[in-house]
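Final report, closing paragraph on structural work. Over the funding period we assembled a curated collection of sequence-structure pairs, and we close with a single example.
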Amino acid sequence: MFIQTFVRKMSHNITSKLVNNADKAEKRLSELKSKLEQVKKFKVEEKIKELTQENETLLKKVEEAKLQLIKLETLNGKVQYPLPGKTTPVANNLNTPILEQPDVVKQTPAVKKEKKEKETAKKPKEKAAPTSTDIIDIRKLDLRIGKIIDVGKHPDADTLYVEKIDCGEENPRTVVSGLVNHVPIDEMRERIVMVLCNLKPVKMRGVTSEAMVMCASSPEKVEVLIPPNGAVPGDLVSCEGYPREPEPQLNPKKKIFETCAPDLKTNDDCVACYKDSALVVPGKGPVKAPTLKGVNVK
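Its predicted structure, as stored:
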């Protein structure tokens, strides 16, 4: 009897502990689930915040890139038109005008044309005087004295020299000349020459040429022009009657040198001339060819 009572009591105690432990475990599990949800929520919010900041940064970079593009296009002469219903931020950031689209067309092309014809009939046409920018002659050529400080044969062309020429600038210019068959390399070294300095740089068999050595040329012979005694690198070459107004760089489309070339010749005294006016280094003398007379200078 005592044993049965003891067993029942022990069984009851064990059952109570198991129930109690189960309750504790369930409570603990509930707490862990709650904390897990909080962590998940925190991580999601943190990621959303991170992505939002990243998007704002990217949008800012896109706007900056747009402004930079508009600025570059405007500097290159491309007119900017704002989209209807949108304002453009360019005016606040750039000192460049933005043309606004007109809301109303005030005159039709036909009316404008008729008005223009009437004005033309009333006023005789006046021929505009050419400005210095319209004139194409030797004044646009930047001719200077240079000194060949280094010369060698072109690595990929047997008839070309590659020279380094001191033109009185911070760095020497690289010049490619087709003179191998006309002038021995020893005669090219340390030579004083006349150089055309404002040609557009052009690659010749892979080497960029930044100027041109001027020569007297006939079908049979080519001679490098000789500057006057005392001429030094950087001296400017002038032509009487044509004040120097050299372009920073000749525009190939205008064909300025090609227009001048037929009138660049040596005279009977072997002096290089443009339309019979001598090419000279002021105060030092004319530029001459060694022997060639009445031939083109190029």
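Helices lie at 2-75, 90-93, 109-122, 185-188, 256-260. The domain at 138-297 is CATH 2.40.50.140 (OB fold (Dihydrolipoamide Acetyltransferase, E2P)). We thank the funder for supporting this effort.
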